[in-house]
Each structure stands twice: as C-alpha cells, then as structure tokens.
Amino acid sequence: MYLVEYQVLPLGTCSPSVSDLVAEAVDVIRKRNLEFRVTPMGTVVKLPSLEEAGALAQEIVERLRDKGVKRVVMVMRADVRFDKELDMDKKVEAVLEKLEKS
C-alpha cells in the first residue's frame, strides 16, 4: 500500500477561498471508498498502487475542470514502504508517543 498526499490548488477562481473546490476534490476520493484524511494543507489517501494515484489525480483534475476551473496546480507526495503495512493513524501515534516520553 501507498500513502499519497495530494495538495490541490485551483487557480484563477477570483476568490482567496477555495474550500468549495477542495471539497469537490475530496468528494472524488470519498466516492471511491478510499481511506483518507483531510489536513489543513492537503489530503492523504491510502492507495494500492502508484498507477491508482495517477488515475485519482486525473479524476480530481477532470472534476475541477468540469466545475469551471481553468488551471490546477497539484502536488503529490508518496510514502512507500515495503517492510510493513502503512497506517496513517499509527504514524501519528508513534510521533505523539515519543513526545510524551521526552
């Protein structure tokens, strides 16, 4: 499994607020029944392959285009681990546990 973070930046919307368009992007993810977490700066999605990550990116861009967005900047980052299953919650818990011990 892969953890992929998407940062979606719709440009040229005539508004500094883009939460409605970010919600459209997250709706694409939700409708695929994928595990995800929305953060203040992006959305992390658990995916079975990098091919799926690209297909999801394409679908998000198409949705935003259909909503009238003329330009989208997207940043994608992937966490790939081969020795064990990646888990979003466990990654955060591990850091918080270490903070409690310090």
UniProtKB/TrEMBL annotation:
<dbReference type="InterPro" id="IPR002767">
    <property type="entry name" value="Thiamine_BP"/>
</dbReference>
<protein>
    <recommendedName>
        <fullName>Thiamine-binding protein domain-containing protein</fullName>
    </recommendedName>
</protein>
<dbReference type="GO" id="GO:0005829">
    <property type="term" value="C:cytosol"/>
</dbReference>
<dbReference type="InterPro" id="IPR029756">
    <property type="entry name" value="MTH1187/YkoF-like"/>
</dbReference>
<feature type="domain" description="Thiamine-binding protein">
    <location>
        <begin position="4"/>
        <end position="95"/>
    </location>
</feature>
<dbReference type="InterPro" id="IPR051614">
    <property type="entry name" value="UPF0045_domain"/>
</dbReference>
<comment type="similarity">
    <text>Belongs to the UPF0045 family.</text>
</comment>
<dbReference type="Pfam" id="PF01910">
    <property type="entry name" value="Thiamine_BP"/>
</dbReference>
